[in-house]
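Ticket opened by: R.M.
Priority: normal
Category: complex prediction / small molecule

The reporter submitted a protein together with flavin-adenine dinucleotide and asked that the result be attached to this ticket for the collaborator who will pick it up next week. Submitted input follows.
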Amino acid sequence: MTDSRLKNIVIVGGGSAGWMAAAALAKTLGRECTIRLIESEEIGTVGVGESTVPHLQAFNQALEIDEAEFVRQVRGTFKLGIEFLDWGRVGDRYFHTFGPIGHDYGPLPFHQYWLKLFLSGKADDIGAYSLHSVAALRGRFMTSATDVPVNSPLHCVAHAYQFDAGLYARYLRNYSEARGVQRTEGRVVDVKLRGTDGFIEAVALEGGETISGDLFVDCSGFRGLLIEHALHTGYDDWTQWLPCDRALAVPSEKVGPATPYTRSTARAAGWQWRIPLQHRTGNGYVYSSKYISDDEVHQTLMSNLDGRALAEPRILKFTTGRRRKFWNRNCVAIGLASGFMEPLEATSIYLIQSGIGRLINLMPDRNFSPVLIDRYNKQAAFEFERIRDFLILHYFATERRDTPFWQYCGNMQIPEQLADNIRLFRDSGRFFRDADEMFALPSWVQVMMGQRFVPTRYHPAVDLIPEQEVVELVASVRNVIARCVEAMPMHEQFIARYCQAVAA
Ligand SMILES: Cc1cc2nc3c(=O)[nH]c(=O)nc-3n(C[C@H](O)[C@H](O)[C@H](O)COP(=O)(O)OP(=O)(O)OC[C@H]3O[C@@H](n4cnc5c(N)ncnc54)[C@H](O)[C@@H]3O)c2cc1C
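Result attached by the on-call engineer:
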């Protein structure tokens, strides 16, 4: 029998996507395959992508990376969620955090009991019943405590990281090279396709070298050098629902303690991010060029920084959407080469991670069974579309009509599945998670409630419980949260003890 195992994997691109793929493939297949990564310092990376979601912990754990060492190296901070300012109405504030809301009771999720009281004016906003939101508001943070009872909310604090994306790629480069990944510096100028079936045979570098492979991982960023330029896979444009197409990004001096959350402030034609790291703050205004000029964006961003700008602001242009196929022939696109949905919920690095996990699960041999490719594409499309809908929700669930941009967003025709989710939630606060879509019930509840999509009634089973019992349940959740938050250190204290970066 001939040996059809993959022998050579070629990764094009050395941004977060390229080095995450290299690290994970080296860890899982290092002894089986030669892994080569080609990157061009002259072209550089997108250089943003500083806010993440909790799933990255699992990625790092699979690589056996020590958390404290990692956070130190990437000058990271911890993230409990995102603070949204001015989204539902100007002046509104809410948190979308990672943890649960209250704790479930009997057959129903906590928010149904809370909703009964809230609708009759007897309970505060939903954030008051989330440990993560209250801790974020007070600038407190700790990772999960193992020395508390398992039913204590402190036993399972869900956190993500805010970090310097360039340092993360560098960290993973060291990791990958130590495990045998061969790095080639150079610019890919040509892609050679096999005459018989159009599979990629090799890539040619400026200077004449050609690098052949069995499997090519396209991590070349927005360019989509292999998946699009060479294979003409096609792109589904989602600008009609996610209308922002540019970002102006600038780092600024750190002023005051780093918050354990990312901030997103809605602006006239988009929104502004603020991501605190140990040594500086990342900022950017994501906007629709149809509704605002670059100059206006520049002015708004620069006059809304906490501290002095540390560099000239940089414009990044993009088209929200996804590649029609993520895996085409012997090429798998990961990272920005596969699509981009804008950074509102910091989902891009997560999508890199899940693309890599899916590729490892469906790793082909040199026969490239179409069954594996089809499954990969179906799952990735599902994941992208469910996240897309959750992002659209933020733009659509608003009472803002103060600028043409918000008028457009509030009146746009949304995808039917999202419309259906909204109808169900507004009816009686219910939501069903489809298969393993990324965002679960607490996320949908926080964003819907935070942006004023309030249900008209609650689940009828709540009335089977005496109202006094509901009042006590809701009050007890608040008390437990208050005690837990009191026991948490300030975010900066926690960093100082656990993972303080060495000054540059
Ligand atoms: C404004 C903005 C904000 C973002 N914020 C977040 C966030 O908060 N959280 C998050 O999860 N994600 C965020 N992202 C997304 C995140 O930045 C990316 O998902 C991540 O950085 C991965 O990028 P990449 O590696 O796919 O592409 P890139 O960083 O663009 O890397 C592409 C690589 O390909 C190489 N390359 C390209 N062409 C060639 C060639 N011809 N020859 C050789 N090499 C080549 C480049 O040199 C580079 O090494 C943001 C993106 C944008 C645009």
